[in-house]
Amino acid sequence: MLCEPMVNREQMRQTVFGYIEVDYNRTRRHSTLGYLSPEKYEQTEVAQSVTIFTTSDHL
């Protein structure tokens, strides 16, 4: 998070929300995703989808 003094409650809320949604949740490992971060899971799923699509396209 930022190392600046918070001016008011709304600024503090926005800063915390931004940290959680942008930084923390994207990199946190989730048990329901096989202990991968959402970004890593999506990369894996997209790569598998492309492989399956291109493989089945040639059948």
Number of strands: 0
From the N-terminal CA to the C-terminal CA, the straight-line distance is 51 Å
- Give helix and strand order, one letter per element, not per position: HH
Helix content class: 55-70%
**Shape designation:** elongated
Largest sheet geometry: none
Q: Hey, roughly how much beta strand do the residues contain?
A: under 5%
Mean pLDDT: 79
Derived structural class: mainly alpha
Given as residue ranges, the uncertain stretches (5+ residues, pLDDT < 50) are none
Number of helices: 2
Give me the Rg, rounded. Answer: 18 Å
Number of domains: 1
Explain this structure to me?
- The chain has one domain (9-57).
- The protein has helices at 9-27, 38-57.
- With 59 residues, it is an all-alpha fold.
Describe what is shown at a glance.
The chain has helices at residues 9-27, 38-57. With 59 residues, it is mainly α. The protein has one domain.
Topology overview:
Blueprint: H1 9-27, H2 38-57
How would you describe this structure in keywords?
elongated; 0% strand; 59 residues; mainly alpha; 2 helices
